[in-house]
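Posting this for the archive.
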Amino acid sequence: MPSDSQAPGDPSIAVVIPCFRVKKWILGVLGRIGPEIHRIYVVDDHCPEGTADLVESSCTDPRVVVLRHERRKGVGGATLSGYRRALEDGAEILVKLDGDGQMDPEDVPRLALPVALGEADYSKGNRFYRLSDLASMPRARILGNSILSFLTKFSTGYWEVFDPTNGFTALHAAVARELPLDEIAEGYFFESDLLFRLNTIRAVVVEIPMPARYAEEESNLRIRDVAGVFLMRHLVNFGKRIFYTYYLRSFSLASIELILGLLLVSFGTTLGALHWIAGGIRGVVATSGTVMLAALPILIGVQLLLAFLGYDMRSQPSSPLHLKLPPPAPPSE
């Protein structure tokens, strides 16, 4: 059922708020969500502070639906629970909003606009768009997010996307139904893994500039604790993306460039290492011919890999997927 303030033809927007240790801020966040939002799903991720109880006892907004987890699943698992319920209820745009006040609820319409206009399948906030917006962000977070952003570019194929851990996002429901929701990471890797999944179905992603808002809230994410896990998962996703995109679903000149480039670089490096070790043992300096025999394959291989990388950067999805998909099913009764 659409809200009273929703005009005919306007998309139904659902806001999903994963909650863990946000009791101090959740009511303020809910109070700032505008009337253009159809429904709000507060997902209590087995919060020890009793966020669900507080919302049910103190929030009178009829749009709010409280969901509870019997065990903690992580921010991704909580978001996915909200997504599934919103899809069952017939929402057309799914917005994820954190409950700690770092994101401005009044920006939800601006975030959802590119999806509503058919310009994108997924939009997300970017705190790095303007340097002035970074003034309040801790330096450690700036460094950590920058490193994760470059890893995400490789693993997802969205080379123009930055700030991958930004959880302020809007996703079209038709695209969400195409995603393997049961396979998406449920922890802090959720946003990065979701971007990888979106690229495998060729969804269009855009970014919306937003300021970094930090007050007294504390992030549960510790870069030093997840760095190794994030690196391994990015490497796995990178391998999957390359295989899916360039060898399983299609085969192009870039596919050949990648294989030949890797083979030539490997051959040249191995040959050069063997001659260097043998020369060291015998005390013989390698001849110019031997050096060129090792260097030439490496140079050609690097050129081929750069050509592949350039092709990969230019091949980002540009045609919104949801315009080609069936409309969302009507709300369940």
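The first helix runs from residue 23 to 31. The two ends are 10 Å apart (CA to CA).
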